[in-house]
Structure formats: structure tokens, C-alpha cells
Design brief:
By secondary structure, this protein is α/β, with parallel strands linked by helices. It has 2 domains: 67 residues, Hypothetical PUA domain-like, domain 1 (Ribosomal Protein L25, Chain P, Beta Barrel), CATH 2.40.240; 163 residues, 3-Layer(aba) Sandwich (Alpha/beta knot), CATH 3.40.1280.10. Helix content is 33%, strand content 27%. The radius of gyration is 20 Å and the shape is elongated. The two termini are 23 Å apart.
Length: 247
């Protein structure tokens, strides 16, 4: 069944009114008809089975036939602090890590980031659409949050809870043993810092250490900036059991 995230105010008791991108998708792309069913989500953890009753080019109306709590959200709350990359690479990270189960994204402005043409509302809107479409496709129960871009220093100072930084130069702390230590303490909300194409600078590394962020290695091979976050997030969610069948 096709899934769509919609604003909560579009649900009025048992009636649902869908507009914009989602209405276009239902009417013009999927060519759905009266009597067809979809699942809508209000980003609070609830999902609604909706029977379509009226479809026009600009709006779709339906009635709620069932309601249940989404069971697809990971128990591990992993926030990805990803350095800004070239546009298509950063969007790839947003899409794939949403599918995987990351709960939020914080874009980082680092010393070695490729210069970008500003963080416009249009760009943020595009990123939010990419996240929403990936969340719908992968059957997520909630949308990952997307924060405004922060400097590396701002992010290091504001991150709360255990924070790991993937660094190719680390020689003593591996991801696996670090995660086992965090699990033993019952900690399941984590932050993961991933650098840009040129990597983190020495001064950024020392600044991170000074704010309690733990550098970890992802192994002997050097991963691309757009690959490292996906690999590390996969390993973290696997270690915490979020890639297994639910109990």
C-alpha cells in the first residue's frame, strides 16, 4: 500500500484532505481511483489506512478506515552530523540513511568542505522532500528531522549524548569495541560525525576531542565521504539489533 506523510491538520477526525505533491502523486502519477486505499502518516508515530473517496487534480479526499501505531522505527536514535558534500552526494546520504533508519540529520560546515552557493530555503526544501520520499518508500513511521547547517564548532558544542567521529587516522579506538562499551552502559542515542571529501582538519579533530567526541576508525580502508556515513550507520544499527526482525 502506498504511504504518504501529510501535515496533521489534513486529518479531521475520520476525514483526510490531501493536497500538493502528495495529491499530484496519487492522481497524476499513480492514477489511483475512488475506492483505492493508501496509508497516511502524520509524523507522530500513527499511521492511518485511508479509502479514497474523491480525487481531483488539486486535492484528494478520503476517509479513515483504520489507525495503528507504526512499528518500523528503530530503537536506536542515531543522528548523523554529515559534512556538506557536492549536491548529489549529500542528497545520496540523506536518501540512503533515511531508508536505513537514521532519525535526524545535521549538515556540517567544515574547513575542508567544497564551497557551496549558500543554504537557501529552496535547497533545504529539496532536502526535506528527499527525506520524505525516502521515508515513504522505506516504510518509516516518522520523518527524520533536518536541522539548519552548523559550523563544526557549533555542532561539537551543542551535540548531546555520546558522539562518535569517524576518522581515518584513528589507530586505537575501533567502532565495534566502542559500541559494545556504549551498549554495556545502556546508551542507545548516539551522534555520528562524518567529514567532507578532504576529511576533518587536525584543529577540528582536537576541538572535537576537547568536547567529549570520540574518534573511531572504520577499518583499514579509506571510505569516500558519501560512503562513510552509510557504512558506519549500518554498523551501529546492526550492533544494536535494529537490522533484525522485531521481537
Amino acid at each position: 500500500m502506498h504511504r504518504f506523510f501529510i501535515p496533521p491538520e489534513w486529518i479531521d477526525q475520520d476525514n483526510v484532505f490531501i493536497k500538493g505533491r502528495q495529491a499530484h502523486q496519487i492522481v497524476d502519477v499513480l492514477r489511483m481511483r475512488e475506492g483505492d486505499s493508501i496509508t497516511v502518516l502524520d509524523n507522530t508515530g500513527w499511521e492511518y489506512e485511508v479509502e479514497l473517496e474523491r480525487l481531483t487534480r488539486g486535492e484528494v479526499e478520503g476517509v479513515v478506515r483504520g489507525k495503528s501505531l507504526a512499528a518500523t522505527e528503530p530503537g536506536t536514535k542515531l543522528t548523523l552530523y554529515q559534512a556538506l558534500l557536492k549536491a548529489d552526494k549529500f542528497e545520496f546520504v540523506l536518501q540512503k540513511c533515511t531508508e536505513l533508519g537514521v532519525v535526524g540529520f545535521v549538515p556540517l560546515l567544515c574547513e575542508r568542505c567544497v564551497p557551496l552557493s549558500g543554504m537557501s530555503d529552496r535547497k533545504l526544501g529539496r532536502w526535506q522532500r528527499i527525506i520524505a520520499e525516502a521515508a515513504e518508500q522505506s516504510r518509516r513511521g516518522k520523518l527524520p528531522f533536518l536541522k539548519p547547517a552548523l559550523s563544526f564548532e557549533q555542532a561539537s558544542q551543542s551535540a548531546t549524548g555520546p558522539s562518535l567521529l569517524a576518522w581515518e587516522g584513528e589507530r586505537s579506538s575501533g567502532l565495534h569495541e566502542t559500541l559494545r562499551g556504549l551498549k554495556a552502559k545502556g546508551l542507545s542515542s548516539l551522534n555520528l560525525f562524518i567529514g567532507p571529501e578532504g576529511g576533518f582538519s587536525p584543529s577540528e579533530l582536537e576541538f572535537a576531542r576537547g568536547h567529549g567526541i570520540t574518534p573511531v576508525t572504520l577499518g583499514q580502508r579509506v571510505l569516500r565521504a558519501e560512503t562513510a556515513g552509510l557504512v558506519a550507520a549500518s554498523a551501529i544499527l546492526y550492533e544494536y539489533g535494529d537490522l533484525d526482525l522485531s521481537d
